[in-house]
Amino acid sequence: MSTKLYVIRHCRAQQGLTLNDPDTPLTREGVQQAKLLGEFLQRQGVGSTDNLLSSPYRRACETANIIAEKLQLSVSINDKLKELNLGNVSRNEDIGAILAELRVHFEHPEKKFPQGESNHEVQQRVSELVDQLLRGGEQQTHLLVTHQITMTLLLQRYDARFGFETCMELTNPDVFLIEFADGEVQQIRHIWT
């Protein structure tokens, strides 16, 4: 059986109170991007019989809801799609130092920010979701609306070339298509330009 997995990074969001504020909404531009994203996915052949899951974070939910409206889908919220928990890292900290530390986390996936989550833990939880979807049988096309680091770590599970640099190059929004045959990855394509 063949399965398509559209891995989608949420559209442009406002700056949150914290680096990983779950309540950050989309900007006006982000709302327009989500509408265009819905049209794009419709042209890809995604339709009302497909499955749309979203991170519980507001910016991802808003993106998913706009897509769902265009494609006549319902949205299921799934905690496994939330972003890497950065723990007690504050927006007031030097972003350069945070990014340097994040680079180290990609090299050493067990490392984590204080009170946070490791890259390994994120990759494990999102991989569990994908494995569950692949075993599910009936649904053959799934859309996952998630975040920058989580998206990269999911892609890295299937292709080790995805890492810190790829993560930093992702746009808001962004879309990769992973195609499976009998549970095995056939190809990964960057389809959003």
Written overview of the protein:
- This protein has 193 residues and is an alpha/beta fold.
- It has one domain: Phosphoglycerate mutase-like (Rossmann fold).
- It contains six helices and six strands.
- The chain has helices spanning 28-43, 58-71, 95-107, 119-135, 148-158, 164-169, and strands spanning 2-9, 51-54, 75-77, 141-146, 174-181, 184-190.
- Strands 3-2-4-1-5-6 form a six-stranded mixed sheet, with helices on both faces.
- The protein is globular, with a radius of gyration of 16 Å.
- The relative contact order is 0.22.
- The mean pLDDT is 94.
- InterPro entries: His_Pase_superF_clade-1, His_PPase_superfam, PGM_Phosphatase.
- It comes from Paenibacillus profundus.
- This is Histidine phosphatase family protein.
Map the helices and strands:
Elements: E1 2-9, H1 28-43, E2 51-54, H2 58-71, E3 75-77, H3 95-107, H4 119-135, E4 141-146, H5 148-158, H6 164-169, E5 174-181, E6 184-190
Parallel strand pairs: 1-4, 2-3, 2-4
Antiparallel strand pairs: 1-5, 5-6
